[in-house]
């Protein structure tokens, strides 16, 4: 490899590395958005139904004590003070409370999307929607498992190594080619 090609090779490897990091970040962001989509749609539907006069208890599915810990959506309807009017998120007979600070943020901004840890080992995507007409909140919690797909990580690593190998091979080949004397145009 020609020493003149080394800085260009390092620059190209840095650019390829940066592009791979950006791809990883974009995929993780899309995965995060996809995990928030079902609770957001359910919160929007519940808010629409409440605005049309539906009783909060009619929004809830049949009682299931394991619903909150499972991968199903859980719905909360809260009044302005954060008191639960209806909820299907229970542990035994106790309703799981929604953190009050999140309600304040939702009241100011209309909606709040967070990753919620109600207890260690359980993560939920929580979407809280404020309904100013009735001064109530609708909160929907859904499953949240943002563990990156190992196949994607292996693919990204293999792609990065392949690009590095191609760039290194090209640098070696172009450096070798530059040692071949150019044909002379003079007679």
From TrEMBL:
Keyword Transmembrane helix on entry? yes
**Record has Membrane as a keyword:** yes
Please list every transmembrane segment annotated in the UniProt record, as residue ranges: 152-173
Keyword list, A-Z: Membrane, Transmembrane, Transmembrane helix
Superkingdom is: Bacteria
Protein known as: DUF3592 domain-containing protein
Source species, please?
Flaviaesturariibacter amylovorans
């Amino acid at each position: 490899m020609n020493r003149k090609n080394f800085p260009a090779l390092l620059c190209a490897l840095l650019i390829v590395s940066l592009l791979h990091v950006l791809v990883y970040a974009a995929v993780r962001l899309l995965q995060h958005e996809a995990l928030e989509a079902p609770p957001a749609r359910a919160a929007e539907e519940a808010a629409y139904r409440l605005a049309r006069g539906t009783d909060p208890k009619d929004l809830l599915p049949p009682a299931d004590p394991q619903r909150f810990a499972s991968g199903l959506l859980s719905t909360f309807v809260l009044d302005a003070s954060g008191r639960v009017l209806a909820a299907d998120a229970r542990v035994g007979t106790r309703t799981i409370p929604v953190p009050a600070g999140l309600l304040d943020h939702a009241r100011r901004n209309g909606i709040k999307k967070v990753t919620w840890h109600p207890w260690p080992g359980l993560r939920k995507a929580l979407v809280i929607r404020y309904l100013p007409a009735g001064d109530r909140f609708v909160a929907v919690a859904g499953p949240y498992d943002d563990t990156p797909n190992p196949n994607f990580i292996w693919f990204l690593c293999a792609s990065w190594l392949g690009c590095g190998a191609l760039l290194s091979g090209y640098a070696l080949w172009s450096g070798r080619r530059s040692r071949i004397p150019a044909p002379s145009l003079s007679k």
